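The material for today's practical consists of a large collection of protein records. Backbone structure tokens are a discrete shorthand for how the chain folds in space. An example says more than a description, so a record of this kind follows:
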Amino acid sequence: MKKLMTMTRQFRDDENGAAMVEYTVLLGIITVAVIATVVLVGTWVGGKWTALYSAISGH
């Protein structure tokens, strides 16, 4: 039990662990933003291709 308490205190006082969590959260936010951007741009480009096809084929 004493060893567990010691390990808990060391983890709590270790600032590298906190920095790693912050970078992981930041990476997650950036990943979500990139995925959302790709989806939105993909939808926009798909719409443009559809409009171009309709204009060329005369529909």
